[in-house]
Write a sequence for this structure.
């Protein structure tokens, strides 16, 4: 069974730009969650999608958005990038949001 | 906001020794999970313990859960160099959204 795939692995963007990150979950998993990891704040929950619907959202500004497609693949978008958005963005898939989560390798975003 | 708080923040032990990490949380939960992360990579799920369970084993791992004290511990027996990583506890349920992670314990196994 293929694992969770996140693309791209590394990204450098300029302040003010926007970025889209992609996540392909494990086959059969309908729940996809996104997390932001920084040295200062640790791992923080962004949002969870289940069957194309956003079920939960963390405490992040509206610049952070996401969506899930019918094949369970998910994308997250960050608009008007700020320096503080530099982080490792992790995607996790599971059968349900509270169950064992399988993480991708992450996308390392650097905003300059 | 962080639900789980791991203790200690960092731990360095000799290969072959046992490593114990603790996690405390604030609200009621449905389950508590432990994950390992190697140097800036994705997290790997280690073990899940439900709120009605007190102890669970998986290979060299032993997890306990005390819901009255809102705490959990992860014991790694006979540590190996490959166990060097950061370990996170994550809680599910209790009104929180998704999995709520602690800040982690960085474990270093000295050869």
């Amino acid at each position: 069974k293929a694992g969770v795939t996140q693309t791209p692995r590394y990204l450098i963007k300029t302040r003010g730009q926007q970025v889209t990150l992609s996540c392909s979950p494990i086959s059969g998993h309908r729940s996809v969650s996104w997390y932001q990891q920084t040295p200062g704040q640790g791992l923080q929950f962004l949002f969870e999608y289940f069957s194309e619907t956003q079920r939960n959202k963390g405490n992040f500004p509206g610049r952070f958005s996401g969506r899930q497609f019918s094949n369970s693949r998910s994308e997250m978008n960050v608009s008007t990038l700020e320096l503080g958005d530099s982080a490792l963005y992790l995607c996790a898939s599971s059968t349900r949001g509270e169950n064992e989560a399988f993480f991708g390798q992450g996308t390392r975003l650097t905003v300059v | 906001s962080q639900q789980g708080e791991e203790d200690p923040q960092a731990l360095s032990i000799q290969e072959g020794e046992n490593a114990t990490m603790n996690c405390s949380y604030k609200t009621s939960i449905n389950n508590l999970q432990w994950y390992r992360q190697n140097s800036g990579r994705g997290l790997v799920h280690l073990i899940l313990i439900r709120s009605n369970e007190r102890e669970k084993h998986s290979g060299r791992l032993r997890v306990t859960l005390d819901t009255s004290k809102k705490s959990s511990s992860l014991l790694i027996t006979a540590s190996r160099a490959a166990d060097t990583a950061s370990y996170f506890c994550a809680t599910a349920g209790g009104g929180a959204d998704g999995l709520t992670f602690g800040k982690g314990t960085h474990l270093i196994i000295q050869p």
Summary: The two ends of chain B are 36 Å apart (CA to CA). The CA atoms of residues 20 and 71 of chain B lie 13 Å apart.
